[in-house]
Amino acid sequence: MSRKKNITLGISATALALGLGLGVTGMASATTPTPTPSTSSSAATDNPDNHGMRGGHGADRGQLAADLASKLGVDQAKVTAALRTFRDANKAATKPAEGTEPDHAAMDAAMAKSLATTLGIDEAKVTTALTDIHGAEQATRAAALKTKLDKSVTGGTLTQAEADAVTKAVEKGVIGGGGR
Length: 180
Known about the structure:
7 helices
């Protein structure tokens, strides 16, 4: 392969990796859930202000309330209200400094404690439910990334080695979406 083609391919792969990283980061990073009060998850989905479970642009925030309600055996409206109370009490006064990540483990622990207290449920049960939900979300993001990378390899945009490098970078947290 010519040097010019190698350089072009390298730049393209880097741009793709950064783009994927930023997109996955947008889904995975932010601070607190912001549920939308509703009696059905479709109402939460229809809300244009609903940008993501942790305040980013990923999954539907109302889905967290629905998933927690299901796992905890509690009415979704009560979970939604408890999540809103937690979010309001923990709203950041200022934006985090560039390049800093919120402590997701501490936020999850605080959320579990708050929800357990508000809902009258054992904190360990809430912690387990949150861990299960986050694990499922991470698996979904990883599968979506794999699908996208596989299509790029099949389409000739990336080599398998480049796709493997992007996957490894995400898994190691070098680029966004590396999990929690």
